[in-house]
Design a protein that fits this description.
By secondary structure, this protein is an alpha/beta fold. 37% of the residues lie in helices and 13% in strands. α1 packs parallel to α2 and α1 crosses α3. The C terminus is likely disordered.
Length: 284
């Protein structure tokens, strides 16, 4: 990922969420307000009669299902008693406002430039604890500690739309560092884009677009390797969510049935942390 500057991929995902909210597929009332002016103009343009169809094709159905999946992932964790949520490379995520609960702390880890831009337009009141850190660097663990994260309490970790932009070794190191501060009972969800669900022309365009903006797509994790990849980083009980499984989140919306279980398509993997957290003494 780029070392500095606002993440273009993050603003584009927020744009998609704003449009999907307008379509009534997802419920993210904060997405549009956090968009920079140029993306707000694009959001308005996507509502024009001749352009509305774009919101039903390409990556939009997958992004809708992905948003709804991670919303459910957080809601289920909170219902099970988890009181810490850590969003890695959070971008313009709004779950700290939408899914806020008494006694629950949301941590958002991201580059300082993106966080500064987000805070300029984020909702007033409430929100996350911002953790400015490089998600690929060893300082992540210390930054979380300084921010008040408790490694002796379970955490729900979200890595949404991230690892495709990391080198394989950086993705592995990130997941291992999260396991290091994950108490037993912690949960992890990682979306594994594959470059990814666009048509062939759009896929090439997307890769060139993000590469020119310092965010090249680097890593594809095949489904067959996902469980072993997470296990090597300290995560177990991995479960893959793809195709019809993700499409179920779109049931009842105009995008239902638009995600086929295509081999090699994007998917999400969830896992758990079992046993004592690394470096943390088990409770008596």
């Amino acid at each position: 990922m780029a070392e500095a500057g606002v993440s273009r991929s993050a603003t584009n995902v927020a744009l998609a969420r704003a449009h999907l909210t307008w379509l009534g597929v997802v419920d993210d009332p904060h997405a549009e307000g956090m968009l920079p002016p140029d993306r707000q103009r694009m959001a308005a343009a996507l509502r024009l009669p001749g352009l509305r169809v774009l919101g039903l094709h390409s990556s939009f159905p997958y992004l809708a299902a992905r948003t709804l999946f991670f919303d459910r992932f957080v809601a289920d964790a909170l219902a099970a008693g988890v009181r810490q949520v850590a969003v890695v490379a959070a971008g313009y995520d709004s779950r700290a406002w939408r899914l806020a609960r008494p006694g629950v702390t949301f941590f958002e880890i991201d580059r300082p430039a993106t966080q500064e831009d987000k805070r300029a337009r984020a909702p007033a009141g409430g929100g996350p604890v911002y953790v400015p850190a490089d998600v690929t660097g060893p300082g992540l663990v210390g930054a979380l500690a300084v921010a008040g994260h408790r490694p002796d309490e379970p955490t729900a970790f979200l890595a949404e739309g991230l690892i495709i932009y990391l080198a394989r070794e950086d993705a592995a190191a990130l997941l291992a560092r999260l396991a290091e501060v994950a108490a037993p009972g912690s949960r992890l969800a990682v979306s594994c884009e594959t470059g990814f669900q666009h048509q062939r022309f759009n896929r090439r365009f997307a890769r060139r677009y993000y590469r020119r903006r310092g965010e090249p797509m680097r890593f594809r994790l095949p489904r067959s390797e996902a469980e072993a990849f997470l296990a090597a980083a300290g995560w177990s009980a991995a479960r893959l969510h793809a195709g019809a499984d993700l499409d179920a989140y779109l049931r009842g919306t105009r995008m239902a049935g638009r995600l086929g279980d295509v081999p090699g398509a994007a998917y999400i993997v969830s896992a758990r942390r079992e046993g004592p957290a690394r470096g943390v003494s088990p409770r008596s």
